[in-house]
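Why should sequence recovery work at all? Because a backbone constrains its sequence more than one might expect. Tight turns favour small or flexible residues, buried strands favour hydrophobic ones, and helices have their own preferences. The token representation captures these environments compactly. In the example below, the structure is given first.
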């Protein structure tokens, strides 16, 4: 959070990724990071979008990205654009 609060206004889109308790990549919102808090701070700083980086995951990468999108849309709809 300190990094985002310090530099977030310089990064119109921010990159998001999540990790589970074991340190493995997880779909955004399905791991240990508090994305409601992160995205609230980001919106307050004027960040206008986000990019999901999905590293290696246990399930299909397409399913992981879809899960990330659904969770982000619920938490911060203003930062999520539909294609």
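From this structural description, the recovered sequence reads:
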């Amino acid at each position: 959070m300190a990094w985002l609060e310090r530099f977030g206004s310089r990064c119109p889109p921010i990159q998001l990724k999540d990790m589970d308790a074991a340190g493995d990549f997880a779909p955004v919102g399905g791991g240990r990071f508090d994305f409601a808090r992160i995205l609230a701070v980001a919106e307050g700083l004027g960040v206008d979008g986000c990019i999901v980086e999905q590293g290696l995951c246990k399930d299909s990468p397409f399913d992981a990205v879809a899960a990330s999108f659904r969770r982000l849309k619920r938490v911060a709809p203003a930062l999520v654009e539909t294609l």
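A few observations help interpret the result. Residues 2-77 form one domain.
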